[in-house]
Amino acid sequence: MGKVIATRLARLVATLLAVTFLTFSMTALLPGDPVNAILGVDAVRDPEVVAKIRADLGLDDPFLVRYVNWLGNAATGDLGQSYITDQEVITTISQRLPVTAQLAFMAIIMALILAIPIGVLGAYKQGKWQDSTTSAGVQVALSIPNFIVGIFLIWLFSVRLGWLPASNWNRISSDGLVENLKTAILPASALAMTQMAIFSRLVRSDMIATLQENYILAARSKGLSDRFILLRHALRPSSLSLMTIIGINFGALLGGTVIIETLFAIPGVGFRLINAINQRDIIVIQGITVFIATAYVVINTIVDLLYAVVDPRIRKG
Amino acid sequence: MGVIAMRRRGLYRAVAFLAAAGLVAGACGGSDDSAPADTTEESSEEAEAPAEESAEEPAEEPAVEAGDEAEGDVDTEVIEEETTIEYGGSVSVGLEAEATGLRPWEDSCSSPCYNMMIAVYDKLMEQDATGAYAPYLAESITPNEDFTVWTMTLRGDVTFHNGVELTAQTIADMFPIQQAGAAGSGAVTAANLVSVEATGDLEVTYTLSQGGSAFPASLARAPIGMVFDPAAAAADSEGYSMAPIGTGPFVIDSRDLDNETTFVRNDSYWGTDPDGNALPYLDSISFRPIPDEGTRLDALLSGTVNAMQTLRQGTIRDARAARDDDGADITLWEFQGNNLGGGMYNVLVPPFDDVRVRRGLTHLNSQEQVIEALGGTGISLPATQWFSPDSPWWSEKVAEAWPQFDFEGGVAFLTEYINDPERSDGKAAGEMIDVELSCPPDPTLIASTQVVEQAYTATGLVNVTITNYDQQTHIGIALGGENGFVGSHQQHCWRWSSDDDPAVNLNPALAPPTAEIAEAAGLAGAVSPLNFPNWFSPTAFQAVVAANQTDDFETRYGLYESIMLEFADQVPVYYSGHTATAIGTDTNVLGLNSWHVPSGELGIGFPSAEGRWSEVFIAS
């Protein structure tokens, strides 16, 4: 087990180094000067101010010097300070992470609530009209980009029915849970659609395989009800790969809510990233990108390790 | 809203999102909007509504217009609100972006940000309905003979939100902070402002290095004109952005970055309406950044917010459809203004250094078709100059001189250049010219560039390459700090003009673009990196300098007209149409078009979708 952990950690470090270097390189390659974004077009007419800001930010240093300096600070948890808002990047992330994490969590839960019954039904009725119908529905859900779903949800539940707000975010701390959920439900639903499709296909295929097992046939021969067999004997062993995918997708959602957060104007990590890109706030872009990559890799690593704990065959292998 | 309407708008939004996800293009470079708008007059319809806390009788002054009425669908018009005002209530405003900061001297600011700043800060000067500059926090301002020294008297008995009294020394103490500020330094340089002194308790003396008859315009802009508490700013500049302190009608209550910023009524506000009623009328106002245009409109239609701004004619079109076709209870406060879309040719780069190419390409630019591609048909007017037809600076002579769409004429100019053995791009006679047309990746801008590309390609004379960079990169390419501010652009989308005094926009645009050009013209030191087309004309420059030396309107009008005529002749810039902006509100949100300067005259309204919120109220 120790060797597995060490290997995973080494991979994690290598991945993060690659991500930070690539992010730094790409932002450095962009044409134009970040000082323009800081000062605005009017203000660049004062060369002294421009020179001072460039010096303050170390923008005149060679690329590698800037990268090493930044990496050294990042290793100690200092991701730098926004050129535009003056806010510490780590503060920016910590303020927005709960919002993004809540959205991701709700999306996963909502997706599971739909995906498991759909997947089980498809497997149980394999090849019949119920299976065909749910498979077609899942295919459609998988094909529609989540922002299209979001646009539709806004139109239906906000504009037409007036049930839910179209945008922005009510915080639990100031507005209470109910008001918070009112603003979270639509974006989480938009995110959940694709997840639901992925999960249900996985559950269906794993269940179909499980239902071929001898112990299932034995259970049937004992006269146990189909419902009992499906839920007690088939679903649990079929959930192992589902758990893996849930973990991976939760990590991906932490960085993958960018479009939905922008569409619904939700103050999460993704929304801040978009603003930083538009403002050429390179320090924030780097910080958030590295954070997202780290979260993804760490969660994947944890899932891998948990998988090894749950399944001794992997641990031994 | 009907299903069909939703489908149409949904399609636009889907396409927009595909193209713009992650690169929500802001404004520069023409944007999607080249539009006029009609200031709706429903605001005066609910005169019978009961007043909770009645003011005076409804005012009966006649409508006041900013210049002559425009021919088109958008009339920039401000009128006295006839509905009886009411106190109380809250307004939530959807903005197209979050403010980068709320420090006028430091934070580079555009329309969304000004909506917030104007709630908390007062400006020394403001524009009235005619576009003239009127004292606001100032009580009066007078120049010396050559406009190098301006003496301003401040309004008395004004205090900041923290209780500190506003004095002349306050303004003087603001100056070093403005000089060092990221936004203020450029404004100070542009205004040629060299010193600010308190010469009395309420008397301030501004000294300029060169005469500037339009200096009051600088005091109506945020970096120099918005008044802040210098002691608090010096003590904690970063904190000031989150907790700004001004003398304005609202006081900061909470700031949740990227989500909501709320201001509450300043009970000690000095301002009153013309009837003597204390301002502001609202209890509170909050601002929410909603970058997606469709969501922002949906937020208004669904009641998530009760006001929203837009700088996009496509959104104005959708909002009009929601109001007119689907019966949505919204008012559109539309404003045409002088802002216009279009672009520039970098005249230091061949073949754009040859006026035949610039004229030829401009003749191929069908503004009507571009406007249609932008979604502005019925909203936008083609442009011929930096002033809209309802501006006092607009010139019919220029309108007639501007090279209109003329395909054959354009082909003739290009053919003449192409067949010239001495052509500037070094190619052999008869070879096609190469044009790189660059715009930010706004979906509607992409559509409009495709219209232009088709026209160029149809001539068989032009190889067109279209490039799209995010807005900051787009600006950076034109600015060209790396190559002595020449830039590496060729044909480049851009926005021109504003409702400020013409000097504000034309002064930097006409100065020599490089040191070499300045020296050759005997103007060493007079270099402007903001001359983006790099076009320099001694006569145009002399005209703009002369316009700074006089405050006689007729003289200045003639000088600016001569500049616009030279633009029409030399075409360093081109246009895709005037730009409408709008603030949409629930129908019971009134007063946006009827705010006043302290003298009692109507203010300019809401240019660039920048509302003044002190006289906004909610009718029962």
Explain how this protein is built.
The complex is a heterodimer of chains A (317) and B (620). Chain A has 2 domains: 2-75, no CATH class; 92-314, MetI-like fold, CATH 1.10.3720.10. Chain A is globular. With 317 residues, chain A is an all-alpha fold. Chain A contains 16 helices and no strands. The model of chain A has no long low-confidence stretch (mean pLDDT 86). In chain A, 79% of the residues lie in helices and 0% in strands. Chain B is of the alpha+beta class and 620 residues long. Chain B has 2 domains: 6-20 and 73-290 and 588-618, Periplasmic binding protein-like II (D-Maltodextrin-Binding Protein, domain 2); 336-579, Dipeptide-binding Protein, Domain 3 (Dipeptide-binding Protein, domain 3). Helices cover 31% and strands 18% of the residues of chain B. In chain B, strand 8 and strand 9 (203-208) form a beta hairpin. The interface between A and B is large, with 58 and 66 residues.
Topology readout:
The complex is a heterodimer of chains A (317) and B (620).
Chain A: H1 2-29, H2 34-39, H3 47-57, H4 63-75, H5 89-124, H6 129-143, H7 146-160, H8 172-175, H9 177-210, H10 214-221, H11 226-238, H12 240-256, H13 258-264, H14 269-278, H15 282-310, H16 312-316
Helix pairs in contact in A: 1-15, 5-6, 5-9, 5-12, 5-15, 6-9, 7-9, 7-13, 9-11, 9-12, 10-11, 12-15, 13-14, 14-15
Chain B: H1 3-20, E1 64-65, E2 77-78, E3 90-95, H2 111-120, E4 125-127, E5 133-135, E6 138-143, E7 149-154, H3 168-180, H4 184-190, E8 193-198, E9 203-208, H5 215-218, H6 222-225, H7 230-235, H8 237-242, E10 250-256, E11 260-265, E12 284-289, H9 293-302, E13 307-310, H10 313-324, E14 330-335, E15 340-345, H11 355-363, H12 367-373, H13 396-401, H14 407-418, E16 433-439, H15 443-459, E17 462-468, H16 471-479, E18 491-496, H17 502-510, H18 515-520, H19 538-548, H20 553-570, E19 573-578, E20 581-586, E21 589-590, E22 617-618
Parallel strand pairs in B: 3-12, 3-13, 16-17, 16-18
Antiparallel strand pairs in B: 1-2, 4-5, 6-7, 7-9, 8-9, 10-11, 11-12, 13-20, 14-20, 15-18, 15-19, 21-22
Helix pairs in contact in B: 3-4, 9-10, 11-14, 12-15, 17-19, 19-20
